[in-house]
Amino acid sequence: MFKTRKIGHVGFWTRDLDKMQEFYTKVLGFKVTSRSGPGAKVPGGSCVFLRCDTTHHEVVFFLAPADAPSLYPRAGSSMKETKAGFQHIAFELPNRKEWLKALEHIRGCGVEIAYGPIVHGPEGDGFLQGSGNRAFYFCDPDGNYIEIYCDIMMFEEEEKTSAESE
Questions:
Q1: Residue 109: CB partners within 8 Å, gap ≥ 6?
Q2: Measured in Å, how far apart are the chain's first and last C-alpha atoms?
Q3: Same domain, yes or no: 48 and 128
Q4: N or C: which terminus of the chain carries fewer CB neighbours within 10 A?
């Protein structure tokens, strides 16, 4: 079996590249690596690559037709739409201080916090198999559910999780 190193990036379709670029840069602090189109040789003909560190991109948005249906037609967001597929994306912050700064900044941008702040685990939300991380959740303009977290439980390479032991 091969070993996956990490999740590299996530790509989304959007009907409004400008709105998503503005949200991810102004609210989440991402930087634009590049923007292509119209007519670029990418799905949809236009896209924007966004990064939060030195990697070329962690998020990419591709332009969907203006009349493309929403992924979340009934509920309005990926957290409430209970069908198979995307549910949320999480971004890790280095520590509690940065997490609190992010919470204040995102609220200051007028973004509604949909869930949290919370600690996932017995000492917080009561989930016994929780990871102990601090988290809060909100939606981007397209209704994609986003988690901002810090302090997640880490495993030593040789440690087995309870699920692996069964």
A1: 26, 27
A2: 20
A3: no
A4: N
Are 86 and 164 members of one domain? yes
| Structural domains in the chain (count) | 2
Residue-wise pLDDT for 105-128, tens only, equals: 999 999 999 999 999 887 777 777
- Which three-class secondary structure state does DSSP give residue 25? helix
Q: How far apart are CA 136 and CA 79, in angstroms?
A: 13
**Domain region containing 120:** 69-166
Q: What is the pLDDT of residues 31-84, one digit of tens each?
A: 999 999 998 888 889 999 999 999 999 999 999 988 888 888 777 777 777 777
Predicted model pTM: 0.85
Which helix (H) or strand (E) segment is 18 a member of?
Answer: helix 17-22
85 three-state secondary structure: coil
For residues 50 and 58, the answer to whether their CB atoms sit within 8 Å is: yes
